[in-house]
Amino acid sequence: MDVIVRKPLARRSHAERTAQAETKLVDAAVALIIERGIGGMTLKDVGELAGYSRAMAGWRYGSKASLCAYVVRAVGDEWIQALQQAVQDKVGLAAIHAATDAHYRFVRTDAARIRAFYLLWFDSIGPDLELKQVIVNIHARRQRDVEAWIKSGIAHGLIRADADVSGVAAQFCATIIGVVYQWLVTPTARHAIKALHEGLKQQMTRALIPLANAVSAPRLR
Amino acid sequence: MDVIVRKPLARRSHAERTAQAETKLVDAAVALIIERGIGGMTLKDVGELAGYSRAMAGWRYGSKASLCAYVVRAVGDEWIQALQQAVQDKVGLAAIHAATDAHYRFVRTDAARIRAFYLLWFDSIGPDLELKQVIVNIHARRQRDVEAWIKSGIAHGLIRADADVSGVAAQFCATIIGVVYQWLVTPTARHAIKALHEGLKQQMTRALIPLANAVSAPRLR
DNA sequence: TTCGAATTTTCTTGTTGCGAACAAGTAAAT
DNA sequence: ATTTACTTGTTCGCAACAAGAAAATTCGAA
């Protein structure tokens, strides 16, 4: 009667404990950020939702800001992986289009982590220097990738040689952020989000395609 | 000796008191939002910076969220005025370019109110329904304006008749937000912000100009 | 019209509850 | 035993509200 069957909590190594706590806490943080926003996510609730005490999250990460920065780093790394997987060894516009399509797919599946990631991204305009630095790094990485795709396209003769590489890359990154903002505000308007991604692809095509082909650029929709 | 010269606090009417309090409180809120971010802006400091007691801001607006919504409404109205002034009765691409240039000028002067306005704008991705509603309204208004400019351009034969009006307008609005995000994160990089605005103008030109003229679209920079 | 309560509106001081951050302790692994 | 993982206890600051003080307005007389 009083015998309670326990899961094999057995004997976990320190490394295991740490790793398990990490994932549980991050998952809890992501869930709470999505549910209540960043301001509504409290360290107390993160700890308790993860199955620990109220102070666990605060103890582990030192501060709410550090937890946020950690989440962005963690999800950002996954993201880089997925993007590389999608682009593979494509070059030029093909790479840009593949990256844009991949972005839309991620957003479309509305994976909780992506949503929390971008919510934190937009929070980086605040005075939190730690988070801002993480975002700046990811942003710089993204822009470098786009520049590399454009340069490779030029090298292969697929992109007009006189293209403003860093300018167009900056334009791409800025627009992606604008599109993401739209998605965060109206996550249900899938068609509109899809159209914005398609528009971005077309915008890049118009900006980068060799002049001889310019007039034959496909129309939107 | 004991005679103290007082400023003419005299007798202010209720309307005057209210109006003066309103401007002082909004100015204080804007200053604090810029200095410490939205999370760092406290109702206590807003009230005291405005020359009142710690509870003044809270009493006046009911809550921090309501104060934020009020600030966005107030600055948003000024903004609409200024934009109409800049566009006047222009049509088509001329209107879009004028609006974009005006946007850059506002951002370039870095008026404190504009900065606070957009900081609050990006905060609208949070769960604050009141602020979100205000932003959604401003956004809808902006998109309608752009659509009207495009339509007027089509009517005057200055824009290709088969343009996807709402699609291109959405693209414009999304990109503006992306550009603004860049500005908020790196407000010092004026050249880059200028380039993004120019890129946006060019992007709109490419998307809307009649096909016969497409190849002669000016290059960036 | 003018004076002066009574009333309404504006603003302040008092209080509560909650969260972040940290301190000091307990439990678990090495 | 010693280090590492985690919990309970405490402090401080802020948002939100309550109840009171001060300023303006209304209104009924003379």
Outline type of chain A: elongated
Kindly name the structural category of chain A: mainly alpha
CATH architecture of the largest domain in chain A: Orthogonal Bundle
Text of the CATH class of the largest domain in chain A: Mainly Alpha
Please state roughly what percent of the residues of chain A sit in beta strands, choosing from under 5%, 5-15%, 15-25%, 25-35%, 35-45% or over 45%.
under 5%
Spans of chain A of at least 5 consecutive residues whose pLDDT stays below 50 are: 1-6, 215-221
Helix content of chain A: over 70%
| Separate helix tally of chain A | 9
- The number of domains of chain A is 2
State the separation between the terminal residues of chain A, measured CA to CA: 66 Å
Oligomer: homodimer
The most extensive contact between chains is: A-B, 48 and 48 residues
- In CATH, the homologous superfamily of the largest domain in chain A goes by the name Tetracycline Repressor, domain 2
Give the CATH topology of the largest domain in chain A: Tetracycline Repressor, domain 2
Topology order of chain A in helix (H) and strand (E) letters:
HHHHHHHHH
- The number of E-state strands of chain A comes to 0
Mean pLDDT of chain A: 92
Using the CA coordinates, give the radius of gyration of chain A. Answer: 21 Å
Major pleated sheet of chain A: none
